[in-house]
Each structure stands twice: as C-alpha cells, then as structure tokens.
Amino acid sequence: MTSHAAISAPACRLCRNPLHHIFVDLGMSPLCESFVPADQIDSMEPYYPLRVFVCDKCFLVQLSEYVRPDHIFTEYAYFSSYSTSWIAHAKNYCEMITKRLQLGGDSLVVEIACNDGYLLQHFGPLGVPVLGIEPAANVAKVAQSKGIPIKVEFFGVDLAKYLSNEGYAADLIVGNNVLAHVPDINDFVGGVAQLLKPDGVATFEFPHLERLMEENQFDTIYHEHFSYLSAVVVERLARMHGLRCFDVEELPTHGGSLRVYLAHAAARHEVSSRVTALIEREKQLGFCSVEGYRAFSAKAQRTKRELLTFLINAKKEGKSVCGYGAPGKGNTLLNYCGIGTDFLDFTVDRNPYKHGRFTPGMHIPILSVEEIDKARPDYLLILPWNLKDEIVKQMRHVGEWGAKFVVPIPTLAVIDPKSIT
Question: Taking the mean position of all CA atoms in its chain, how far away is CA 58?
Fold first, then answer.
C-alpha cells in the first residue's frame, strides 16, 4: 500500500475525509458484469481504474465512483437463483429469522436488492408478507413472476420516506450483498433507519474485509463493489444513523461473509458478546491503523505471477484450458492478469443470459456448461472459486478423461476430481 501524492485525493464516502492511501491498484478494467454481445465485439469498451483506497480516519476501504449505479444496475447480468448453494442458504436464513423474530401474518419483510426473488420466495410458505426493492428491471421481472411485489427503484432516504408515507413499516429489512454496492452508503443506511419499525431488525450480509485480506481475495474488487467492509466500519456507520449493531455471524458464503444485525439505538435487542469480540479482533489485526492494510498489494501480485506461470507452462505442454463460470470476480482476475483466449479457449456458465456473449475486456466466449463435455479440456479454471466445492461435485465426471480443476484463490491449487471421495 502506498501514499501517492500524484493522484488527486477523492473524499471518503463515509466520513468525507480526503483519501491518500492506496490499498491495492489492479490497473484498468471494464465493468465486470458488462458482458459483450457478439454484434458488439469490435466496439470500444470503457475502462476505469481499479484503484482502491483506505481512509486514514474511519478506515473504510473503498473504490471511487467512476460509474453511476443506474448505469451498472438498471439491467444486471447476475441472477442469484443459478447457485443452488445460495438458494439453500437463503431458505435456511428465512426459516431461522422467522423463528428468531417471531414473524407472522402481521409482519412485513422488505428485501433491498431482492434480485430474482431467490430469498423472498421462501417467506411465502411461512405466511410472512414481503416487499422487494430491486433497481434492475430484468431481474425484477423474474421475482414478479413468482408473485413477489416489487418496487423497481434504487433504495435510499427518499424512497424510504415515500414508503413510510404509504403505510409501510418493516419488521425486518434484509440486504444481502448490497451494502458494498452502494456509493452513497449514508443515504442507504439512513433509509433503513427511516423504514424500520422501532423494534425492527435489519440484517446485512457482505464479504468480510478480514477474509478478503487474509485469503487474498483481490478478485472480489470490481466497480460494482464500492466498499469493502469490516465490523469496525459497519458499527461506526450504524451509529451515524441512530442504529446499533447488536449481533453478528461469520458465514462461509462468498469466500467468508459477515451477517450483521442492526436495530434502532433504543430498541429492545441486547448486544451479543460476538459483536465486541469481533471488533476487538479486528482492532488487534490492525484495522484501525493504516499500517494494518499495507501488505495486501503484494499478495495480489504474487497470485498473478503464480497463475500466469501455470497457464504458460500448461500451454507449452500442449494442454487445453477452459474456464468454469463467468462471475464478476472472474473478470477482475482475467483483466488484471491479462488472460484472454490465448490461455482460455472459452468459459461456461449456468446462466443462459450470458451464453453467446463474451467476457468484458478479455473477450472470452461464454458457452453453456454442456460444451465442457464436448471439448474435453485438460484443465478447468474455476473462476467463482467461492463455489468450488459445488462445482467440483457437479462436474467431477471430467476426471473420466483426466481433466483437473484449477483454483486461483487464495493461492493456486490443482484439484484432481479422482481424489475427491
């Protein structure tokens, strides 16, 4: 991490302090979910810096807002329901939180960034009314087709006030993998405080900065993720809007996430010892000092060298390599490492929306999963490494022709499916 006087200092989105300290610089990259249609393959693509700062006042790790959210999220390529493990995670959460908060027919659950209804659909059988808020019209239509009421808008204080005036008040507000996607994080959390009942609860899940740093998850950095969050920062953010964090869970999802429970400062919920323990741990790790963030950049550079060395040697040996998945994190990895069709013949994805398109920047063709069996590659590079266990299980038959899986994060690993019991 460096302090770079030549770079103009943007302001911290949380505390407005000038930003001077670079956490990691991953070069220039296109928007990670801007998959290129075949008829636009020769058109110019905009590239933006992936230069991440850390604030030396509040310690929020953040990317500058180069593109407005309505440009990124009005039509979105990510559909949550294509991951079976994520659907199971959502269902388990709905059953748990309904019991914990004693939700029923007189309650209201609001999910912000509800995507295709992957989560809210599970409250129906539990008899709990819901409202979804989703700015991407294309994925909102899928949720609406499931009978879920949706507001196709961005969430903030203005929408929260409008909903309050219309008689809405939430017993539970859910936000999974949305807090990091919001450039005006104060407006977002201010809206949550506005819409939440006096004893209501908001839960947010987001990738944990501790895991990103510890496990070298640099590829989770992309323009759609404006902030990279710790418990220390979220507690500060909550207090700024009259809320408090009263519980926290550490989850395995998305490479290691936090689920934080927020409520109004005067709400009845008692603070769990897990909150104080986690914040103390983060302080011990150096999350309240710029020095604690200095070592990360070298880890990203090391992984780049490891992956390129492996791919170069594989191609020298005449081996064929295909990708598995076309996630946002994969596009950061491909662009940062300069991996194009000279290394990957193609990649595959379960989402038909992406089929026939090309990855942004490196223009790797995206095909259906069935193409793997036709091509019979020697190696499959797993781009959504957070789902590697699910993918290896689904695709273990590739071992029949001797293929192996390659996982790039946190360090390069080769998995022989024949060794999986």
Answer: 22
Residue 1 pLDDT > 70: no
What Rg do the C-alpha atoms of the chain give, in angstroms?
Answer: 22
Residue with tokens 């090309």: 358
Backbone angles phi, psi at 123, to 5 degrees: -80, -25
Tokens in use for 382? Answer: 């797993």
Full-model pTM: 0.87
- C-alpha span between 140 and 368 (Å, rounded): 24
- Res. 9: pLDDT tops 90: no
For residues 173 and 146, is the Cβ–Cβ distance under 8 A? no
Distances (CA, A) of 339 to 24, 122, 305, 331, 334: 20, 40, 12, 10, 5
Q: In what order do the strands lie in the sheet with 130-133?
A: 150-151, 130-133, 109-112, 170-176, 196-207, 257-264, 243-251
Contact call for residues 197 and 268 (beta carbons, < 8 A)? no
Rounded Cα–Cα distance for residues 114 and 123 (Å) = 13
pLDDT in tens, 241-281: 999 999 999 998 877 899 999 999 999 999 999 999 999 99
| pLDDT over threshold 60, residue 67 | yes
Cβ atoms of 31 and 332 closer than 8 Å: no
Q: How far is CA 309 from CA 63, 315, 398, 408, 413, in A?
A: 29, 10, 24, 12, 13
Find residue 248's DSSP bridge partners: 260
29's tokens: 């990259």
298, two tokens: 């070298």
Exposed, middle or buried, 227 (CB in 10 Å: 0-12/13-18/19+)? buried
Q: pLDDT-based confidence at 285, cuts 50/70/90?
A: very high
